[in-house]
Amino acid sequence: MSPFSRLYITLSLLLVTMMAGHMVMAQTASRIVTVGGSVTEIVYALDQQDRLIARDTTSSYPDQVTELPDIGYARALSPEGVLSVAPDLIIAIEGAGPPETIDVLKAAQVGYVSVPEIYSADGIVTKIRIVGAALDQGQAAEALAQQVTDDLSAAQAAAVKAAGGHPKKVLFILSTQGGRIMAGGRNSAADGIIRMAGGINAITAFDGYKPMTDEAVTIAAPDVILMMDRGGDHGAATKELLMMPALVPTPAAQNGKVVRMNGLHLLGFGPRTASAITELSQALYGETH
Amino acid sequence: MSLAVDAPSVHAPPMDRRVQARRLTVALSLLLAVTSVFSLAWGASGTSLWAAMADLAAGRELSRLDRIVLFDIRLPRLCLGILVGASLAASGAVMQGLFRNPLADPGLIGVSAGAGLAAITAIVLGAMLPPAIRELTGNYLVPISAFFGGWGSTLVLYRVATRHGQTSVATMLLAGIALGALAGALSGILVYMADDSQLRDLTFWGMGSLAGATWAKVMAATPIILAALAVTPFLARGLNGLALGEAAAGHIGISVQLIKNTSILAVAAATGAAVAVSGGIGFIGIVVPHLLRLATGPDHHSLLPNAALLGATLLLAADMIARVIIAPAELPIGIVTAVLGAPVFLWILLKRRGALGL
Asked: Does A116 touch chain B (CB under 8 A)?
């Protein structure tokens, strides 16, 4: 056999293998792994949870999803661990990895769909459409997208009305580890939800989540402090929080305005975000408080 | 070893130990071979090495999944585990000999600090590089930066500590502390700048892992680590001599400066490559040489090869635990080595305070 014909055979074998790969992709996936809390929620919202076989650590809603095997943290997936649950499709939020693992999964002919993370109403609709297409549920996804869009605009309109031209300044505190306040700045999920709920993010000096110096927190003068609900005794925790020197002079501390919400609900940017907007807006402006 | 020495071993203790050490080398080689087979056989997925071997022997095709699990996941991981374990343990032994300090590790010559800083820089600022460079390095920007960062900081330390062709080990140690602090401060700035997901990447990098093992990493690390390990037998006599002190070693005809240069070069190469492909994995470099010194004494002729063998075996064993204990998820291997290594180290200290001369 001449080297040339050997090359030809190799190439055509390669081509056949690649086409076989496409055919696998085209079949309807029945063993799906989701990575990312909002992606998993969308699969449930589309009523396709029977096709789920595993999920990542950040997927914790609805409760029954936690009964599925956990393949680990989204950015530190192990190739053999993922392959061990024998998936035929992985739907993952942007940034899942590491890239070495994704390469191996693709080589193993596991379908892989990446879902972009954008902290806005349009971002949620995009996620729903992409997940719907991956699940072969285009129509259902379109209906869900429409419903979510309507819910979101209704919730946002109500939130704007509730704010009544006097939006409150909200400080999102991610953690207070070691007495340092880690706050949410621009382009964070917290920033997105605060604006959608008719508030103003008290922090505009930086992107993402960063530790802040005490005086900057005081100057930001938030009307409300927003935190994630971590369970446990909130009464004592709130008291301790409001006694932090940086917070004492703020209007939020003087009026005792601390709002705690479930992290995935608040920051997930999935099908439940409209209800998160309503909940946050009521907590900010509601008569209930 | 113990105080109650029986008569024959008083007459020929060195011979006795040499035989013992040689037997240990054979035993450790066998142990490494067995561990390697188990490392290929053990994983989260249902792929069975035995079934695959039976299939291959019968001339049957392996399924695509089995082929990928065995040849693209477990085999490169096995190779990387052996390379990294051997270089960390042998480097630790060389450093402890060179610095005549039981706590010495490759961190003393700045490799870890430099590699860590470079890795953090690549993770946080990598996106700012021109697309041409990013395309060239692909997924390997972090390991490449870590390797050159480790080398760079070792070179700086070496230049600082060397005057008139003489390298002062004491200066190197102190300058290493200063450089480590500086690298820590710069890393701190980068950590502050990092976003949420980069922070998670940094944390995971620091805990080490063999999960990202690819053939490309194995190919890149093999020549560097093998070359460095091949040099270590030639260091044994010199490191034995250095135990007497630098001046005494010089008087018995050892070219001290040559030993220093070669040791530093070999350790920087081996550790730099190991850290680059696996992140921060602790305790192998300290625990392994100490265990062996207790078993067969401080002679570097046997200590260095045995350390490489035992280091590789222990890292493979730790990796097997890391990959199956919370399957399908995976524990970073640095956590496993620290959880197992730290108590063992403490136990050695308590048990043999006398033998270690502490």
From this structure: no
User: What is the value of pTM for the model shown?
Assistant: 0.81
Using pLDDT thresholds of 50, 70 and 90, give the confidence band for residue B3.
very low
Lowest mean pLDDT among A82-86, A122-126, A208-212: A208-212
Q: Walk me through the domains of chain B, giving residue ranges and CATH numbers.
A: 15-351 (1.10.3470.10)
What mean pLDDT is predicted for residues B61-75? 89
Least confident of A88-97, B60-69, B125-134, B326-335: B125-134
Q: Parallel, antiparallel, or unpaired: how do β-strands B162-163 and B166-167 relate? A: antiparallel
Identify which of A78, A85, A100 has the shortest CB distance to residue B323.
Answer: A78
- Domain identity same for A111 and A179: no
The residue segments making up the domain with residue A199 are 166-285
- The verdict on residue A256 lying in a domain is yes
Q: Is residue A147 part of a domain?
A: no
Q: Residues of A with CB below 8 A from B74's CB?
A: 80
Q: CB-CB: which of A54, A95, A100 is closest to B328? A: A54
CB-based contact A81 B68, cutoff 8 Å: no
Q: Which of A102, A123, A138 is the last residue of a domain?
A: A138
CB contact under 8 A, A69 and B326: no
Number of neighbours of residue B346 by Cβ within 10 angstroms: 10
Could B139 and A100 be called an inter-chain contact, meaning their C-beta atoms sit closer than 8 Å? yes
B19: closest CA of chain A, how far (Å): 42
Shared-domain flag, residues A24 and A77: yes
Query: Are residues A132 and A14 both part of a single domain?
Result: yes
B70, two tokens = 């065995």
C-alpha B287/C-alpha B282 separation (Å) is 9
The verdict on A104 and A198 lying in the same domain is no
Q: Is A217 within a domain? A: yes
What is the tens place of the pLDDT at every residue in A155-173?
A: 999 999 999 889 999 999 9
Classify burial at B83, counting beta carbons within 10 Å of its beta carbon; exposed 0-12, middle 13-18, buried 19 or more.
buried
Q: How far is B48 from chain A (nearest CA, A)?
A: 12
In B24-145, where do the E strands start and end? none
Which tokens in the block code for residue A110? 């596991």
